[in-house]
Write a structure and sequence with these properties.
The structure is a homodimer. By secondary structure, chain A is of the alpha+beta class. Chain A has one domain (2-123): Arc Repressor Mutant, subunit A, CATH 1.10.10. The first copy, chain A, contains 6 helices and 3 strands, in the order ααβααββαα. Chain A has helices at residues 5-13, 20-30, 35-41, 47-59, 81-84, 87-123, and strands at residues 32-34, 63-68, 74-79. In chain A, strands 1-3-2 form a 3-stranded antiparallel β-sheet. Chains A and B meet through α1, α2 and α6 of A and α1, α2 and α6 of B. The structure holds a DNA duplex.
DNA sequence: CGGTATCCCCGCTGATACTG
DNA sequence: CAGTATCAGCGGGGATACCG
């Protein structure tokens, strides 16, 4: 287990932010999306936040921003070639997250049983 | 790429927090540590934060808290058996983080070259 | 359409002091 | 030793309005 944790923190940096996972999910799924399409796909996000999160992803070379010089403006976002390499990591996090939700719900069920046993004992 | 992003967010939840990665790093490396040993290993952390982050990890069944009923008090923290299963994920994040730092520094170098070329052009 | 610019709130984090 | 309690600050995130 030879991880220097600063690198883990590096990996976290570009996933952290309330909307980054969902943005990546949408772009991975749909390939290329316009700004307004992303906004519609992310209910509740404001333009400000969408812009901010996209700029961070762009800075990290995960997302590409293509501007069409025209009126009305048109901007398309997509995962960069380099960004595609994040796929396996996202998949690994997804897998772990899935099984963890399972694990937590099992823990929760045990607690429920314990509470029920406790309640039953109290009735006596 | 069939990830529902909520599971990715689940995975993020227990890594998020200013100190969680370092805490896990220490516990993975050293196996078992007392509260004060952890505090010494994490320069700048307050007792309050250390306690809070440990409690969250404990809630997620990643970290085990063993209390010795004695005076003065003694409490030891360690990775749970379940928590050990996070090892591969942490390793994956570490690997990706490592190569990403490399990638970013390459991007930075290109920017430097571009700036130098720009400066050279300006001299003419 | 695809953004900035402002203002504001709340929750994470920290500093400090106290306690069993 | 291993915490809790309390107060304070700062910044991520949101609502709204304006702009090229």
């Amino acid at each position: 287990m030879e991880e220097n944790c600063s690198t883990v923190e590096t990996a976290l940096e570009m996933l952290v932010g309330k909307w980054k996972p969902v943005i990546l999910y949408q772009l991975f799924k749909n390939g290329t999306l316009r700004f307004s399409e992303l906004q519609r796909a992310l209910p509740g996000i404001t333009k400000k936040m969408l812009t901010a999160q996209l700029r961070e992803l762009e800075y990290h070379d995960i997302v590409h921003r293509k501007i069409y010089m025209q009126i009305p403006p048109k901007v398309e976002y997509s995962i960069t070639e380099y960004g595609l390499k994040m796929g396996p990591l996202l998949q690994a996090m997804n897998d772990w997250g899935t099984s963890h939700l399972q694990h937590l719900s099992e823990l929760y069920d045990e607690d429920r049983k314990a509470e029920q046993a406790e309640a039953a004992a109290e009735i006596k």
